[in-house]
Every structure is written in structure tokens, then in C-alpha cells.
Amino acid sequence: MQLNKENYKMPFIELFKTIYGYYFYDVNKNTILEIGKEEYDLLYQCLKKNEFKLNDQLSELIDNGYLKDERAEFIEHFGIYNIETLLNRKIKKITLQLTQDCNFRCKYCLYTKGKNAHQRGHSKQKMSWEIAKKSIDYVIKHSIDNKIINIGFYGGEPLIEFELIKKCIEYTQRECIGKIFTYTITTNGTLITDKIVEFFLKYNVICVLSLDGPKHINDKNRVFHNGNGTYDVVVQKIQNIKEKYPQFSSKLQLNMVVDPQNSFDELCNIDFDRLGLDENRVNISFVDWADESDNVKISDKFISGYNYGLFLSYLYYMGIIDKDGISPIKLILAKELIDEIEKGHATNRIGKYAAPSGPCIPGQARLFITCKGEMYPCERVSETSEIMKIGNLEVGINCEKAIYLLQVGKVGENICKNCWAFRKCKMCAKLTDDGDKMSAEKKFSHCNEIKERARLQIEVEIMMDEARKRKLSVRR
């Protein structure tokens, strides 16, 4: 039996197979289903030839709600209907740019002049107390429905303005009754003193220190003004804290920026025991080379080490092998994907109006306020971009600009409607930023990477399910 293609589009699915079985991911049901080889081969040919044919098994699947051809007719993020409420009453966090100055000149930093000067640059500009106070007052006024508010201190290097940090924290503790304030600072760590540690301990400030790996890797990018490496200074500061303030050391977090031009296995050789850290207190991100991604090479050693390292980590999380010998870095990267899987699947069908799953509500989760009092969705976007500037302290957030960024799925929407990764898309407006508009060309240049991540997530989920069913075991 062949369906009339005028009445039935191709099913919205993606095929997967392993050494143990055959599967398809049903986009509408947001579900992975195991099928037989005959059905897999038939679906493969249907997708290849763009001609849908049925057998009894496929007809039964359709009767049970699978293999539907439903796609969104219009891309529309549901957040646009309550965005004013979210931005007026439910802001969760503000990040204050205390200064654009820094005692480092990290080669990948968005503030470093030269390669990334189109984004922003280092300067002596700093936030005044008036702007800081207005920022705190703004988040209090616009978080009525939230009991807990987080204030993040950011730079440049925020500890250059430690006195301003003190003033902000003391103000919130003294004046803001009825709210619980938490505090986070992202710092290179070199300016930390006993006085600072004692103050942070008093107010339970979470301190995120930056270190990018063992010495020879960290010092390639993280350097002082004179080009000298920073590893030894940072590690000495961490060890001093560990010895003198063990209660604070136990709360330290580490931020690692991974440069894929290095060997992944060498990067994993960072001595966590010496630093007094474990994988539960390490955040990992990848270098953002802004618009220079075409010129950045990923080393073969990185790719092979990364893939094998994650494979071992997935086996550990499945209970197949033990943890011995697996780097915490590999465990962290694998855990991110495992966490996404364990969150479960939304089961609502794709309706007439729908949007890819990627964007957050601009300004609600981590509103970034610059030294001048200008507002951006977060600290990762370009401060020179007109579309990324969503407001300022004088007038507040412009909801229309926030909605524009939230509707990133509408950029090139005809392609997005038919993408099998629609439900698992991580596209952010930042990736589309062309200065004065969101660019479809820039957006789609990131699609392969996003789909590879979505495919990996499904493959790992299948692998985990197969391990449970077959009670696989591996000896090491």
C-alpha cells in the first residue's frame, strides 16, 4: 500500500541503529522506539526516496500514534505570551559588570583587543555605586514572585572592585528584607587575599576560579599583560586557601575553558587532588573564538581523546565499568548529557504553533548589566550588538526586543520546521548575531554541531537502555 503524498507528508522521524537493534526517534511523540530490521530498512528507503510505503507493522505503528507527519505550521515561542510577567515579576539573577579592566590578557577572552575587538575591549571603565545600587533595586522590584535572588559579580576581573562588591552585599543584607540573596563571583583568583576570603565566608559567596588545565595548557591562553603564564600564581592561591580556610576551600568551584587545539588527554591531566576539587565542583565550557571559528583548528588528538573519554564515562554511568582511571573532566562532560536524558521527554505533540527548544527568556535567567547600566540577556553576548541590547536602567527591559531574540526559531523557519532535531535544538540568538539583525546564514552555520549533539544524546539513551535490558558487563 502506498499513501497519497498529497495527503501524507513524510513521517517526522530520524533513524538509528546499533549492533543490538534498530530504532527511530519520533519527533512528534518525542520518543525513541525499537523496531525490526524489516521496518528499519523500509523506513530507510522511504526517507531516501521521499516515498512513503506501508506494511502491516508500520500501519500498526501509525494506528498507535507513531510516524505522524505533523510539523509546526508557524514558529512561535509560547514564552511570548507571558514574557512581560516574567520580566516584570520573576527575574532570577543579575550579573553586574563591575569593571572592564583585568590584570590578565587571556587570548580567547571577549575583552582582549585584537582578534575579538569587534565584541568589546578592555578599558578602565568601572561601575559606579549609583549604577550598582540601581541594578540591585531593579532586580528587587522585578522579582516580586521570587524569594531567592542571585547577584553575580563579573568583569574584567571583578576583584579589582572588591570595595564595590562589599558595598553591594552589605546593601542587600541591610536594606532588602523578605528576600534571600545569594552571591557568585567569577574571578581569575590572583587578587584573592585573606581579607577577601573572610568576607566571602561571612556572606557565603560562591567563588568560581578560572583554570584551563595543567600548567603547559593553561599558560598557552591565560597570561598576564607581559605574556607570562598564570598557572603557578593561581594554584598557589588555591593552596593557600586550602590550608588556611578549609571551610571556604570546600565551596570553591573551578571554571575550565577547553581549547580544542590541545590534546584532550593532556588537558585531563590537571591535578584535582592537589587543588582539593572533584568533578561536582567543576564547570566546563569551550573556547568562544567569536567570528574566527573558521580559522580555529581542532586537533586530531583532541577528537580521538574526547570521543574515547566520553565513551568510557558513559560506560561508567551505565554501571558497566568502574570509575578508576577516568578523568573527572571526562565524567563532567558525559554527565551533562546524562542529565539531559534523565530530565525525561515532553510528550505533548507538536501543534500548529511551536518553536525549537533552544532559547531561554532573554533577561530573566541571568540579566547582564554593564558598567554604563545597559542591559543584555547574559554576559556571553556582544556588547557592541544593537540587537543584543535589550534595555537600560533608565527605561528597563524592552519586551519587544526580548521577544525578537526569543523568536530565534523564526529565522529560516521553513528549514527549522522540518528538522528532526526540532525538540532538542540548543540554538541561541547569540549564534545568529549579525550586529543589527539575526542572520539565517550565521544560524545555520551552527546547525550541524547542534544536530550532532542531539544525535549523540539519542545514541547514548539507546545505549543505556540496551545495557539495562541486556545487563551488559565489561571487564577492565
Strand fraction band?
5-15%
Give the oligomeric state of the chains in this entry, treating copies of one chain as homo and distinct chains as hetero: single chain
Distance between the termini: 51 Å
Radius of gyration: 25 Å
- How does the helix and strand content classify structurally? alpha/beta
**Mean pLDDT reading:** 90
Total of helices:
17
Based on DSSP secondary structure assignment, what is the total number of beta strands?
15
Features:
ten-stranded mixed sheet, three-stranded antiparallel sheet
How would you describe this structure to a colleague?
The chain is α/β, with parallel strands linked by helices and 476 residues long. Helices cover 36% and strands 14% of the residues. Strands 10-9-8-7-6-5-12-13-14-15 form a ten-stranded mixed beta sheet. A three-stranded antiparallel beta sheet has the order 1-2-3. A hairpin with a 4-residue loop joins strand 1 (13-17) and strand 2 (22-26). The longest helix is centred in the last third of the chain and has 24 residues, at 447-470. It is globular. The N and C termini lie far apart (51 Å).
List the helices and strands and how they pair.
Blueprint (H helix, E strand, L loop, with lengths): L12 E5 L4 E5 L4 E5 L1 H13 L6 H8 L10 E2 L7 H7 L3 E5 L31 H13 L6 E7 L7 H14 L4 E8 L6 H9 L3 E5 L4 H7 L9 H14 L1 H4 L3 E6 L5 H4 L4 H4 L6 E5 L13 H18 L10 H15 L10 E2 L12 E3 L4 E3 L14 E2 L3 E2 L1 H8 L6 H5 L22 H5 L2 H24 L6
Parallel strand pairs: 4-11, 5-6, 5-12, 6-7, 7-8, 8-9, 9-10
Antiparallel strand pairs: 1-2, 2-3, 12-13, 13-14, 14-15
Helix pairs in contact: 4-5, 12-13, 13-17
